Amino acid sequence: MPSYAIDGVSPVVHPSAHVHPTAVLIGDVIVGADCYVGPCASLRGDFGRIRLMAGANVQDTCVIHGFPDSETVVETNGHIGHGAVLHGCVVRHDALVGMNAVVMDEAEVGAYSIVAACAFVRAGLKLPERSLIAGLPAKVMRPLTEDEIRWKREGTGTYQALARRCHASLVEVQPLSEEEPDRPRLQAGGPRTLVAAKRDGEA
Asked: Model's pTM, two decimal places?
């Protein structure tokens, strides 16, 4: 992965975390155990600190940054969807920030809450726990159901498994020139053959 020290401060990545080779880490970035950082994510700790706590995931093309002396934190099991932007904020444990959402400086997303895709969380806004948050600007829409919290937890578990899968099997290859017979279908836990998928009614 492209990883850069600045002013003598280097990123820290726990050995169990997976950071994609195209993601960029700069400076005061701390990636905890079992984290997943996706392709083309930018975690730029050249002013404030960035901390991903255990089991968090930051998906493709996300941007995390902050003003000087700030700390941008994604707590344990935090889940940051594709293309989201976090700037000097805190995402509490087990919360989800949806695709292309923006969370601004000194904002706080409460534990177990879900920020909907494309929402804009203004600077300084403190959002409660177990809430659905949406809109431009974002506001609390309603409490989350237990089923929604369970759905989020399962999705985060899938990304924790993906970090392990990447350690075990992710390699750079040249693409094939044509599709092979009985091409495997990928599942959250790894590949399955097309035959097995058809047998189980999934193909």
From this structure: 0.91
| Strand stretches in 71-193, DSSP E | 71-74, 79-80, 85-87, 90-91, 96-97, 102-103, 108-109, 114-115, 120-121, 131-134, 139-143, 185-187, 190-192
- Please enumerate in sequence order all residues whose Cβ is within 8 A of that of 185, keeping only pairs 6 or more positions apart, or say none: 191, 192, 193, 194, 196, 197, 202, 203
Closest CA to 153 of 71, 61, 86, 57: 57
For residues 134 and 71, what is the distance between their CA atoms, to the nearest angstrom? 24
User: What backbone phi and psi angles, to 5 degrees, belong to 148?
Assistant: -70, -40
The amino acid sitting at 71 is E
Contact 107, 86 (CB under 8 A): no
Q: Are 152 and 94 in contact (CB under 8 A)?
A: yes
What is the rounded CA–CA span in Å between residue 149 and residue 131?
10
- Structure-model confidence comparison of residues 195 and 122, the more confident one: 122
Lowest mean pLDDT across 18-27, 178-187, 194-203:
194-203
Q: Residues 27, 7: contact at Cβ < 8 Å?
A: yes
- Give 41's DSSP letter: -
